[in-house]
Each structure stands twice: as structure tokens, then as C-alpha cells.
Amino acid sequence: MKRSTCVNMMLACLFAGAGLIGPLPSHASEMPRINLSLGSVAMDVPAAMVKRLTPLAKYLASQTGYNVKFRASPNLDSAVEDLGLGHTQLAYLTPVAYIEAHEKYGAIPLVSPLTHGKSTFNLVIAVRKDSPIKTVRDLQGKKFAFGDEKALLQPAVVMGAGIKLGDFASYAYLKHYDNIAKALLNGDFDAGILKDSTAAKFEPQGLRIIHVSPPLASYLFAASSRLSPEVVAQLKAALLSLNANTPGNIAVLRALDPAYDGLVTAEDHDYHVIRKLIAPFQDKP
Fold first, then answer.
1. Does residue 13 fall inside a structural domain?
2. Fewer CB near the terminus (10 Å): N or C of the chain?
3. What is the reported pLDDT for 42?
4. Could you give the residue ranges of the DSSP H alpha helices within the chain?
5. pTM
């Protein structure tokens, strides 16, 4: 048998075998084998953050072909450092965390969540529903709860409401908004600051809002400056694709935050107002 005939027979067998297992996806051979870690500021206990962000990691993997896993961070500082040092390549950040990550490491803003169609959120001051406290002026000499000590927007909003930190009998940092809400309900503190969506979740359990901040540029997803422009563009496109109104996409958004209903492109200049608000609270060189 001639060599060319043998080769042709072997190729025919290979093609026939391929037909038995079905055709491979046309993009399979081109799909990059890239491992990406999705990080986040710690807005809740680690187990809750895993529950909130894992659906998004799976969605991004399905959209990009990358191996995307969620990596929890214990606080704001670590979320910023993880993104800057390359432990994570994409992160869900508070405005203050983004500003720090951008200034220190060149983090790239991608998209912001929409809450009822708006790319802003509010911080609120809340008390127990049965508290005698009616206004911010009534907080003098009271115990107050903040979240992360590095979340400079929180004291900025409190002072903007008309009370200085020195006016409190005491104040403490409880890390997560859920911790603050639960501490208020337990009577451990007289008042505390919450994200609007957290306040909405706990209002039916017995909280009352006494102050609402002006609209603030929302949380956002930012990418590491170490990523190639092509990968950054793919991640941004995948995130914006969540706007497609499908049950699966809605479930991913609502897992992240029940109030979220879409995503919009974020720009660095969106956060200039917040930079001005937190400037008095930043360490001076």
C-alpha cells in the first residue's frame, strides 16, 4: 500500500471519529486559557460575599472562556492591595476603595451598577424604630457605628449632616453594613451609617432612617492595570451584557445586590465629587 493511501485512510478515520463525538466549537482552539480572580471589598461576612459574587464569577467565565474564581478580601485595604499587586484582576469596589486603587495602582474603571435605573447610591443614618432620636442634632452624646475604618466617605457624610465625630459619646467600626444594622437592632449603638440598600433590607425589622446623603457615585467594577487592553475590553463587554433582560442575568445581578437592575460604563471623573468629600479625612504627606 502506498504511503499516500495510508495517510488518506488515517485522515478519513480521524474525521469519522470526530463525527461521532460531534463537532468542536469553532472558537475552542482560540479560547485563551487565562485564570482570573474576582475580588471585592468586604461589605458582609466572607461566606455572604462568596454567595453574592460567585454567580458573577461563573457568568464571566461563561462569557469569556476564562477561568474566573472569586477571592474574598477581609477589608477595604486588602481589596485594594489585592487588585494592585495582582492577586485579583477584577474587583467590586466602593468609591473610596476605587479612588485609592486608581491613585496607587492605576486601577481601570469599568462599570457601575444601576439601582432602579440610577448609577448613584445614598448613605443613610439610621436608628431603631422605637428610638427617641428624631434628627441628626439628637445624636450628640450618643453611641455611633461606622463600617470599615478606611471608608472615609462615611465620616464625610456624617459631618456633612451637621455633627462632628467629637460630638458622639463614642463611636466604633464594625466592618460591615450588616453588622451595623444588627447592632442597632440589638441596642448596642444609638445610630449608625448604612448603605441605602442595606437600610431597606433591615427597615422592616425595626430600623428608621433620620438622614439621607446626597446622591453619590456608585460602587463599581475596576480592572487591574496589569491586564492587557484586550482582556479589559472583554471583561467590560461581558459585564455590560448583563443588561440583557434574561432570568439568568437578573439572578446574577440580584445575587450581588437585590436593588441592582443593570450596569453602565463608569468613568474616573464620576468620582471627583467623592474625592473632594473625603479629602479632609485623608492622611496628609
1. no
2. C
3. 87
4. 3-21, 46-64, 76-85, 95-105, 153-160, 177-186, 196-202, 229-240, 247-256, 272-278
5. 0.80
